[in-house]
């Protein structure tokens, strides 16, 4: 670990704000979009139940580029890459607002994702190198605060903009923030590079990325693109083959993208697979709930956005309780019970219909927000807590990839289920029925993930050289 670089007092004050604003742009964009999907579908002449590609394109692009973000910053310099990331995100936002077709919008979201994939990892890397390790947790906690505000503000602001202006403004509001961010980054972002040239595992990156893309397209093909089952099976087989080729190769080279040795730590292996499968339910909710409220229950965009606030409030309320509860129950008991509870709460959304009182709906959403937040916090920490200090950076990078990938797969799976349960020219009652069946399936899948956490040790994992390592505090 290289020593922190020398910063002047003004830069030391402003740098955390700069990274926090970049994080806020990402979290706001991720939550503001979901409420606007039905309005986008109307303008682009698409079925609102098949708009998941707009969400998946961004998440999958971010997941693909996260493994390369650190190497790119070390190779070309943190200031240049951070400014480039803001420019790409802003230009992608402009192209999203100018899109006149579904395919144009998806392509613009990919460009936006290129910027989003670099902003936070590069910002976090600069903070890690620019400040003493003793200050890292405090500064990262400060940077994470906008990540809590974004999901609280996003759905309401998105619904308000759609109802009183147009959906284009959910992307246009990124432009002035992007301009200010570029100016601030050019002035205050340190231009750090890696101490030595490191060879990047390009072939491993291609194999790993191809596997993620092929599997996601296969699931998306069942929903929006209506591919034949034969083509879907071929894509799934090709994705599995690429993933197998990656891990076989990673086991025999010196510096793979992600080392198989990480999985020798049981808590890491369980945490990674738990994140991948347990998030399929939680990751699908921000996509499914605004559609349920607007398409099946007839809410206005503003009403749907306001109704999503309890999800964010519940998540914020449980943050301070997470550590005491984990300390009391232990990871194994907490994750098994919490996963089953989360699955039950998601499945119970199938009971919602046009007669459900609004207050009951809001309480339901609030409970889901609390349980979901507890799930994410416990899964993130159990994944990293047992790793050695030397493996923590690589493990954290892989966790970030899996988080984005699992949310992308969750949206793709939910879209495929929703498309499969929706009949042509469906009436309102049939559309509601499709949502109810989808929630039952998604909840059931979430509950099955509890079996993974049975594999945890009875005692909580720790490592001999354990220190207060930075854990991803963005959720």
From TrEMBL:
Q: Subcellular location, in the record's words?
A: Cell membrane
Q: Which InterPro entries match?
A: EmrB-like, MFS, MFS_dom, MFS_trans_sf
The domain of life for this entry's organism is: Bacteria
A GO MF annotation of the entry reads: transmembrane transporter activity
Q: Which UniProt keywords apply?
A: Cell membrane, Membrane, Transmembrane, Transmembrane helix, Transport
Say where the protein is mainly found.
membrane
Q: Kindly list the residue ranges recorded as spanning the membrane.
A: 12-33, 53-73, 80-100, 106-127, 139-161, 167-188, 200-219, 231-248, 268-292, 304-322, 334-352, 358-387, 399-422, 434-454
Domain Major facilitator superfamily (MFS) profile per the UniProt entry, residue ranges: 15-461
Q: Which GO terms describe its cellular component?
A: plasma membrane
**Keyword Lyase included in the entry's annotation:** no
Q: What is this protein's name?
A: EmrB/QacA subfamily drug resistance transporter
